[in-house]
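quick one before i forget lol
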Amino acid sequence: MRKGIIISLVVLTSCFCVWWLTQYHNSSIWTVVIVSILINIISGPLYFLIVEGLYNLKHLGLFWKSYVIYRNKEVRFSISYIFRIKVRDKYLLVKNRKGNYYQPVGGAYKTLPGIEAIFKKYKVAPDNRFETSHGIAKNDLRFRVKGKNVFNIIRWFNSRENRETSQWREFCEELITSNIINNKHAFRYIDYEYATTLQTPMKKAKRLDCQEILIFEIFDLIPNDEQKIELERMLAGGDTNEVKFADETLIYNLGFDTRTKETAYDIGAQTKWTLLEKWTDD
């Protein structure tokens, strides 16, 4: 639709200028042709910026950075889903697999067969920040693209094509397969509800020489009666090295307990964002 609007504006501008030259000036046909070509060359990119800018008023900062400042620079994407699992007045957190801090259950989405054409079209490059025992994590939605393709990638992700759409895998890997939950039968299926999507601004990546955008889809676990019993049993059993139950005060301070004036343990910033449902500069 936007492409059609831009083309229409360029054609209308050209027609108006041709009419004006022939109506009010004794211009030769070659002058009219040359002016029309110049109008197309100049007005095309100009209308593109105007139309795209109007469509993306809410993301004007990202639009400016993507299409102008970092147009031909690499921008890193990390696109994940997160579960908010509340047990009484606390939230279940698990230890990060790579760092010594705690975060909600969740992880990066995976790509599905057929993604190759999309990645080739937008010249997506693999991300080498996270490695597993088998090498660079494959099929994760962690990658790099040129700034000019940032909005194309976001639109592709929102289309839900050629990518994982279920959130069961990470829940299973982090709580069931890892034996953190003992009563596996109780969690043979789970219900959960979409809450919101959180997207950070384009910002300098930590410890990496590139810009970065993080996207999190947030879901609330809706446990049934049997699952509630198991979760409350885990809460009553207390914290372990692999699992913590943190209240909002602890999460908002990223592990620093204002009541004891000590850091109980480190909590990842995305945990706070998940509760607030917005990005903060932590």
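fyi The two ends are 38 Å apart (CA to CA).
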